[in-house]
Specification:
Its main location: cytoplasm. This protein is of the alpha/beta class and about 240 residues long. It is built from 7 helices and 11 strands.
Length: about 240
């Protein structure tokens, strides 16, 4: 079995709460007492200094030190020495481009999938943990060399998943329609729509939905299905997913 440990959070801020407030107990349970310092990757936002200050304040309040990779003169070495990695949200294209530009794709994959250090992502940081960023909600403000991401799990996620609002007159495509368009392309993996307040905990070959709002699962050629917190999604971790024609 894989030693990977992932906490993939849909959003960093939930309405009415502060930064990572809705999931701070999940974070403490996930990181435990062995981890002393977290390596933060703020590449998804332009103002990395301000972002690092926000993250540092939160993690210090939870009992963890935080080092921001943008302050390191050698980002690759920072990943190699890290005890745990947290990639925050922002623009997914900007984030992925910076990961490629700094030669971090292979290094992060190795640390997480081979060495077993904990990986946390929120929003864009969750997007890049998956097969590709094809199912992000973000605008392509920069051009990464590839849409292929870290591939820590063999499926895609759509963070901040929104259900259609039947009262609205807006006639643009719903999130569900956009994911269906993605699945019209051949050999596209499952997409897990994570609503705000929801996260996926991956421990080795086991994946469990956590949080408060549930998720919607999209499989190519099948009707989407609704899932409550506590759902076992371990079957999504097998590359030869039997539910994905």
């Amino acid at each position: 079995g894989s030693p990977r440990r992932l906490l993939l959070i849909s959003n960093s801020t939930l309405h009415g709460g502060g930064y990572l407030g809705h999931c701070q107990q999940h974070i403490q349970s996930f990181l435990g007492q062995k981890v002393k310092r977290v390596l933060f990757i703020p590449y998804a936002l332009h103002d990395r200094d301000a972002y690092a200050r926000t993250a540092r304040e939160k993690f210090e309040s939870l009992g963890y030190g935080l080092d921001s990779i943008h302050e390191s003169c050698d980002p690759v070495e920072a990943v190699r020495k890290s005890e745990a990695i947290f990639i925050g949200g922002g623009n997914t294209f900007r984030l992925l481009k910076a990961l490629y530009d700094n030669c971090l794709i292979h290094e992060i994959r190795k640390r997480v999938l081979e060495d077993g250090i904990p990986y946390m992502g929120s929003s864009a940081g969750t997007n890049v943990a998956t097969v590709s960023i094809n199912t992000t909600n973000d605008m392509p403000i920069v051009y990464p060399p590839s849409l292929q991401a870290l591939g820590l799990v063999p499926f895609n996620i759509n963070p901040h998943y929104l259900d259609p609002d039947i009262k609205r007159t807006h006639m643009g495509e719903t999130r569900e329609e956009r994911i269906r368009q993605y699945h019209e392309e051949p050999n596209t993996p499952p997409v897990l729509g994570l609503r705000e307040g929801t996260m996926l905990l991956v421990e080795g070959d086991k994946a469990t939905l956590q949080g408060v709002t549930g998720a919607r699962l999209f499989l190519r050629g099948k009707k989407p299905t609704e899932h409550e917190p506590g759902t076992d999604f371990s079957f999504l971790l097998t590359d030869s997913n039997p539910l994905n024609p």
